[in-house]
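Self-study notes.
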Amino acid sequence: MVTGAQPILRRLTAQGQALFEPVYDAVRLRRYDRLWLGPAVAVLVTTLAIAARTRPGHPVISRYAVTHPGDPLPAVLLRLPLSLFAPAALLPFWFAVMQVLLVFSLTQAVLGTVRAVLVAVAGHSAATLSAALWIAARPPVGLGMQDAHLADAGPSAAVVAVLAYAAVRLRIGWLAAVLPAYHATEVVVVGGLPSREHLVATLTGVLLALVPDRRFAGILAAAGDPPGPSGARPPPRRRRWR
């Protein structure tokens, strides 16, 4: 039994290295240029959340940063950039900040800045724009018109998209399978708009991870963000963790 478990443990250890070692290398080498994305997004999420709790800031955030399924498309497109950092629906403020801080710091080190941003924006945009389609689909697959006023998922859609992308690119099979399965189950059990948007964002991250690197080679090279073996800048030397 112990002998049979050893290959699984070695595989999980290797997957843990692939996911966390780039962060360790960046900290060890003081390459904080590979870790700034998480803190930057966390500051923006914090700023918008605090502003939304003030009397003058609330109407501004509501008008320019919060999207709803019932909004006309021009209004959604206008609010789309800031909605990536807007207060998340049904999510505690502190948890929203912690998830963007941890996941974006991790995936920036693993994937590179440009790739992490592109995937996050694509996942968030797909999830937000899918909201109107969920209303149009109607129950039981979609949502009723009474949900057209609900706020969209906020930064959590971008988080699950980039995490799913990293899981597929690093061949962390269990995580790549668990994320879509969890959000599909969430849609069935919990329902609601955020659950559906999380599922769309997760599937967007998975699909983008299947696109060959050569499709983005020009963009990444122009930005000084060339892909390494797993889509990130290669670390100076890979060590065996004991």
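Second protein, same conventions, sequence then structure:
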Amino acid sequence: MAYKKFAVSPGFREGGSLFKPEQLAVLDSIVGDDAKIELTTFKQLYVEMEEDRISAVQIQLKEVGLDIQPAGYYTKNLIACNFCRGAEDAGLNVAKRLDEAIVGKEVPSPLKIGYAGCALGTSEPLLKDIAVVKMNDVYDIYVGGEAKGIKARLGQLYVSGIPEDRIIPLVTRLIAIFQELGKKKEKFSKFVERLTIEQLQKMTQHS
């Protein structure tokens, strides 16, 4: 019997990207005893189960408000803070639109994109491949963070003080450049180091 893996995410709402107990209960009740569920560092669950049942199961999971995404070398759901300053002040709607624009794109290696609604950065955005940080009424974007290994590093400031309407064009342009010029299995932090942040800035200055 063939098995296949897919990703499950809780999506966004005020209070953060959190799974509800009833959502997890539904997941447990329908995937089957032979399924494997893995908690990832992307705030997603990887579900590996019988391939011929996946479509029906995914429909049921969507009905309880869960997002379904491909597993593997794709951009992941936006990893966001808990919007503790409130939905409007922390930019919940911006985060939702950004998540919809970035998720599920095939890339040379898995891409984690972080979002923080203020400078406290409780979602640790600067350890992500790309980070968006709300600074009052404008936003800063960082690139090349790396959370793993003995050479862990903070992301470098890529652009600062940009308005809300430029966030999605800039981030999606960065993803497109990685898709085009990144090497197979190359981490985004290594990609930024190889291309240099100055070159990235030149390639996206009109986005």
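Instructor comment on the second fold: The chain has two domains: 3-70, 79-204.
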